[in-house]
Amino acid sequence: MLPSYLHEPALEYRYEKLRAKSLPLPLPYPLQSEILLSPALRKVIASGRQVGKTMMASMSAIGGEQYGGRGLFDAAHVHLSSTSQDQSDMFWDYITTWLGDLIGTPGFYKNEGRRIIKYKGGRIKVKTGRNPDALRGGNVDKLILDECAYLDPRAWQQVGIPMLAVRDGVAEFYSTPKRRNWFFEMWARADDPANTHWQAWNFSTLENPYLSQTALDLLIQDMTEDDYQQEIMAQFLAGAGAVFRYIDERATLQRCEPYKGNFVFGVDWAMVKDFTVIVVMDRDSRRMVDYDRFNGVDWNLQYGRLWTLFNKWKPQTIIAEHNAMGPAIEELQRQGLPVESFLTTAQSKPPLIESLVLAFDRGEIDVLDDPVLKGELMAFERKVGSTGRSQYSAPSGMHDDTVIALALAWHGASVRPMRYSFL
Fold it and tell me: What does the pLDDT read at residue 415?
């Protein structure tokens, strides 16, 4: 069901306001409206080809109530950039065509050479972003980056973020996926409910209500299966360093209420900005049944949440990462919890992770259908160090806490013997 602000009467009301301006502005289809009208400060849109990304980004740049605000009609400064000159030309053509009737009216200014439009205090600037340094300069209320998967990540990390600081600006990221590169990392961050100012969308070309079957057939006729999944279905395909496979096939479970059984916990403690994650696994069925994930709380509350989950499931064993947490583990042992420590080192981590990888490959494990867990599993990567040893971790700037907690729970369920029993 559509949100109330997307019902047809609301769409028609906004469209009537556009017509009252005597401007040929397009009416977005419902999914486009959902994205445009979302109040999120960071929007990450991963979609298939030909869904109207460029048109939607152009609508956002114009702004106004009908297109979510913070645009030209709201006296905002907007910077809009894409990968190539041709793509930037498309933005410019849309915007100048829609606003053509304003040419010559008071307050309207257009500079074709510099690709700048100004109107009553608002401004749109269109630039090509292949070279991140070329985007530098000025402060903006809204930054729109198109085809992000094909941009240098510095366009956002080193140039874009500072541009928004002074005006407390918003950012929108549009792209078709390019395997699991930095755009996937951005999408996974936005898909994490803990990041409350972010929002993610992932939808295929088939969502475009104006694309005919004939047009779709022409679009896909020479595509390989991988091309179809990425370019049309907007799937983030595994890259060369991807570790886990069969994630969708294994991540199908929902949380369940406690029942009598043999359970093991895997615990990865928060370090600075990370999350504390507690994964609950049924030893007998090798199924993940519950988990908790939190950050920004003191140790007493972390202990309390572990005790709450312990009283709920009564695990026989708790496997907790020892690194820098030895005193905390000793304290939990003194309190009577069946905690065993696991020291993560360059030698112990690879077999821990590889055991979990094999469980996914062999279909020996089932986990929760949870967006954070799935995102971390998809992003988790392998690199080979200078010694030739495999190194496993999340990409820079992302989390792997749920992966580590799951690996510890799997270690407890598949390797460690049961030592405790509760009636």
Answer: 73
pTM above 0.85, yes or no: no
Which pair of structure tokens corresponds to residue 369? 């259908």
**Residue 422 burial (C-beta neighbours within 10 Å; 0-12, 13-18, 19+):** exposed
Cα 17 to the center of its chain, rounded Å = 34
Ranges of the chain whose pLDDT falls below 70: 1-21, 134, 137, 239-241, 271-273, 324, 385-388, 396-397, 416-423
Amino acid identity at 192: D
Q: At what angle do helices 326-334 and 299-313 cross, to 10 degrees?
A: 50
The hierarchical CATH code for the domain 247-414 is 3.30.420.240
Residue 70 tokens read as 């913070």
Please give the Cα distance from 38 to 128 (Å, whole number).
Answer: 26
The CATH 3.40.50.300 domain(s) of the chain lie at: 4-232
Residues of the chain with CATH 3.30.420.240: 247-414
Structure confidence by residue, pLDDT tens digits, 22-43 = 788 999 999 999 999 999 999 9
Q: 4-232, which class in CATH? A: alpha beta
Burial category of 296 from C-beta neighbours within 10 Å (exposed 0-12, middle 13-18, buried 19 and up):
exposed
